[in-house]
Here is the input.
Amino acid sequence: MPNDNLGRTDARWREALAPLHRPGDSAALETRVRASLAVQRGGRARLPGRRAWLAIAAIVLVALVGIWARGGSPTSSSVAGGQYLLLLYEGARYDARGASHEQLVNEYRVWAGGLARLGKLVEASEIAPEEQLLSGSGESTQAPAGVITGFFIIRAADEREAAAIAATCPHLSYGGEVAVRPLRAG
Amino acid sequence: MSDSAEELRLFRQGLVEGDDEAWRTLYRRHTPGLLRLAELLADRPDDADDLVHDTWLRAARGAARFAERSLVRTWLTGILLNCIREWRRASVRAGLVELPDDLPGPDPEPPHGVDRLDLERVVAGLPPGYREVLLLHDVEGYTHVEIADLLGIEAGTSKSQLSRARRAVVRALGPEEGGKDA
Here is the structure.
């Protein structure tokens, strides 16, 4: 019964190598892959639910800012292949109590690392809540804690790609919001 | 064997049409296994994230050409194997044919009581061709016909490589490590 013997041998080997059958940790990689896919698709990804609205809002915001800056001339995009500022807001809906600060930092770092590998990341930083307001008279005032808690500067082909990248930011999964603004060169 | 209707729906919506929710479900279903395989197959386990990352990008680019002749899992595994081969910058066949042959004989009994770290160390030290067949067959559960399709070799070659890989594992573990209970 060679087949039976072979089957038993296979079973014993699979049992012996079972310790190798450990699933990898895919969570940290997910945001990076999503960001890369958004770039690969050129911002044509179908975004679900609220994220789609955020992305659309961001595109509208970008368009409005562009129109305003050009004195109301609604021409084509003002930023082609430029840099975009992603501002991370923590509003009333933001809730990251289920994750430690270390986990959050790591998640955002992996996401940013994915952008960096694609040549899409220019700069990023967490922003501390303390701020000072300076007036023209030179006086400074301690301001209340702000709600902008971080920023990324990214490179994108256009507003659509920038919004698609922003839509993959892990900040959104915690109820935070991401505003996308083009940076003007020179 | 074929995928369920739900799996194919997720594949079409997530990878062909770019629906984010469908893609995430598919990603979370298959990535733990892909990562495990990449960590064990890659010459440097640290490359596993990059390899799986590239696998998903290629899958999205080639999704429209998926003919549903294999399982989605098998198709993704094939892409991962291609990524690993390219990263390795050498033909897997070199690893298969350039090795000293063993004397013919029955497959050895598997080692017993070996902990995971020792197994990982021994598997990592195997030549790439041995490592691929051993992991695909004895860890991932693929048949020799499926492995032949994935690696572009004959099923008979898969069987002989598996036998040699098993002997190499037993030899590498040695009587002290490989024979605790044997």
